[in-house]
Amino acid sequence: MRRHPIPVVAACIIKQHPLRILLHRKDEAKDEKGIQRNPELVGLWEFPGGMMEGRETPKQTLEREVREELGIVVQVNKLIDTKSVCFRDKKPYLILFYICQTSYESEPEGCEYFRSKDIPAIKDSIIPGDLDIIDKIIRNLGRIDAQIARGVARGLKRGGLLLQRESQKIVPVDKGPLKASAFTRNIGGSGFKTDIIVGYTTAYAVYVHEDLEAAHGEAFNRKYAEQIADTANKQFHNRGSNQQAKFLEQPARELKPVILKIIHQEAMR
Angle at the Cα of 146 (from 142 to 150), degrees rounded to 5? Predict the structure, then answer.
């Protein structure tokens, strides 16, 4: 009787935002000698992986097994759990579960990404032992994923307010309510789907000349501010009702790295 457990490694390959877990449908059940073992597991969903060979480290085994089974390259991160199990062959197995990630976007043949809401429908088709690990990943990484999503939303709002303030500094019309009409608001969505817009509610914003070096530049804007504010007067330059005021574009370009940094900082809080 075998006393020492057979070391097996499993790759818990995840995608985040939203959290998805890659499972592989087991298509065979052979041991290290190619002998059919535990046929009751064939057809069930499992984490990809396999038995360690020779002097391989767990990381080397995972990289090899995933490359051979799925044809993709993974980055092996941290060990999240270990589990001792016995199947019908009565052999003891020690399974080491590692969080892994991949840049490969498509689902490899025989695999599928599952979100947390999908798991209840397939739980009876998951290899015993793996379901507990899936629950653990969802509890831990799912919570982290939600925290990051909320941070991204905060960062987008902060970035939008910064853009609003900076654009107000260069609004080329001194008179009228243009400067005070600036706004930053979420027009829909939450978390990673938050849709923040920055703009000006004053209808004449699209008629203001943005080129301060042109003949009809800064002096024109100052002199005719009241007429520009009269939206019934259409004699001035019109860029179209669907175009944004140009004085938002320059700070948007210049502040892009700063805004991205703000979003990252909020996401990591």
Answer: 170
- Pull the structure tokens for residue 11: 């790759």
Whether 124 and 184 share a structural domain: no
Q: What are phi and psi of 46, to 5 degrees?
A: -150, 165
Is 120 found in the same domain as 28? Answer: yes
pLDDT digits (tens, 9 = 90+) for 50-63: 888 888 999 999 99
Neighbours of 97 (CB within 10 A): 24
The reply to whether 13 falls in a domain is: yes
Torsion, CA 47, CA 52, CA 57, CA 59, rounded to 10: -20
- At 126, list the tokens: 């998951």
Are residues 96 and 52 both part of a single domain? yes
Task: List for the chain the helix, strand, coil content (%; round to 5).
Answer: 40, 25, 35
Contacts of 47 (CB under 8 A, 6+ apart): 10, 11, 12, 13, 23, 24, 97, 130, 133
Contact by Cβ (8 Å): 61, 50: yes
**Does residue 182 belong to any structural domain of this protein?**
yes
- In percent, the amount of the chain with pLDDT more than 70 equals 74
Number of structural domains the chain divides into: 2
pTM: 0.55
One domain, residues 122 and 11? yes
196-219 pLDDT per residue, tens: 999 888 766 655 555 444 544 555
Q: Which structural domain, as residue segments, surrounds residue 212?
A: 152-267
